[in-house]
Amino acid sequence: MEVTVTINGDSHSHDVEPRTLLVHYIRDVVGLTGTNIGCDTSSCGACTIHVNGESVKSCTMLAVQADGQDLLTIEGLADGDVLHPMQESFRQCHALQCGYCTPGMVMAAVSLLDENPDPTEREVRIGLEGNLCRCTGYHNIVKAVLHCAEASS
Amino acid sequence: MIPAAFDYIRAGSAEEALAALAEHGDEAKLLAGGHSLLPLMKLRLATPAVLVDIGRLDDLSYINDAGDHLAIGALTRHRDVETSALVQSQVGLLAEATSHVGDPQVRHRGTIGGSIAHGDPASDLPSVMLAMRATLVARGPGGEREIAIDDFFTGFLETALGDDELLTEIRVPKMPDATWGFQKFNRRAQDWAIVGVSAIVNNGNSGVGLVNMDSIPVRAAGVEAALAGGASASDAAEAAAEGTNPPSDLNAGPEYREHLARVLTRRALEAAGR
């Protein structure tokens, strides 16, 4: 089935099997491999991207469901060489260790601040409940999100 | 994990969806947000031959004040329910419980109708529907019919919806002055409830729904009867596991779930001011 999506501002059209998961489409067909696959069961959040501006787990969505939608992946977040404020905050606060969860964590965090620009620490922790960091580096991740919120206000 | 192959039909209207169901019968499954169905399909626990995508039926995404009840379109996303001022003020228990469904990403995609129609006893929202005595509206080839929530869940992941029917609306009685409690016990933030309880008290009438205490979502009828008889929260909660048949899994056996049901029911009732 023909699918046309906008990813990071660019239009992409491909003929895909209906059972193709969105994350596989993004990684294997379009070739944007910044979005990771972790648990593949919508638990870990590594595959989080934005669909029409909201965080979504792309392992639990079919590519055909995304037809006509506006997608943003981690590759589309920076403005050229200038990191997005959330990426910059993750860097400043050392909010990553192995880095595997980071793309999904950043995308979830950006969506979180879009909905709640001035969250409490507790709201950040609850807001990121859909993302797992197996390095258990949550403390600095939460710090980074709070730092970004403060820097943006 | 990739689902087994299927044919995909994107419905442009409820009528198109019903026509597809009429043609494909029990070979077809409706796809709304997909956050219950797709995980099952990836595990090949569900292998529908045809998926009818109703995710774009925007006319079934709404929250309306309908006098004595709120009318909520089946395709209203959890996020929209959770943040609706109307839901928060009129049926606060539903807003609270919805904010505990999955995680933010799941709530951006999952729908209230999809969650209820899935009929999973481990889901949070059916317990709310039981506690608040919601009415469901289904549309089929013969038109619309109402289904009382107590008649809706018929077996494990089975409901009173026919193969040719579409759940279109959830009607929740307005209870702006009700007091309520929602309790969900799990080991990790986003897990399914090991046991959950929705309790509401409105004008002296109570409703208590249980999560994960049987093969279908069930009402704690014994607790409701005890409360009607004037029992205290802690006395009434002793009846929480009566008549249930809790599942056993790696998280808990039946006896532990029965214990949790009593404890969580007491806490929910205390939160509701009983």
Notable characteristics:
heterodimer; A: 153 residues; alpha+beta; Ubiquitin-like (UB roll); DNA polymerase, domain 1; 5-stranded mixed β-sheet; globular; B: 274 residues; Uridine Diphospho-n-acetylenolpyruvylglucosamine Reductase, domain 2; Uridine Diphospho-n-acetylenolpyruvylglucosamine Reductase, domain 3; Enolase-like, domain 1; 3 domains; 5-stranded antiparallel β-sheet; 4-stranded antiparallel β-sheet; 14 strands
Task: Please provide a written account of the structure.
The complex is a heterodimer of chains A (153) and B (274). Chain A has five helices and five strands. Chain A is α+β, with helices and mostly antiparallel strands and 153 residues long. Chain A folds into two domains: 2-76, Beta-grasp domain (Ubiquitin-like (UB roll), Roll), CATH 3.10.20; 85-152, Orthogonal Bundle (DNA polymerase, domain 1), CATH 1.10.150.120. The longest helix of chain A has 15 residues, at 138-152. Chain A starts with a strand and ends with a helix. By secondary structure, chain B is α+β, with helices and mostly antiparallel strands. Chain B has three domains: 7-53, Uridine Diphospho-n-acetylenolpyruvylglucosamine Reductase, domain 2 (2-Layer Sandwich), CATH 3.30.43.10; 58-173, Uridine Diphospho-n-acetylenolpyruvylglucosamine Reductase, domain 3; 179-271, CO dehydrogenase flavoprotein, C-terminal domain (Enolase-like, domain 1, 2-Layer Sandwich). In chain B, strand 4 (63-65) and strand 5 (69-73) form a beta hairpin. Chain B is globular, with a radius of gyration of 18 Å. Classes of the chains: A alpha+beta (153), B alpha+beta (274). The interface between A and B is medium-sized, with 33 and 28 residues.
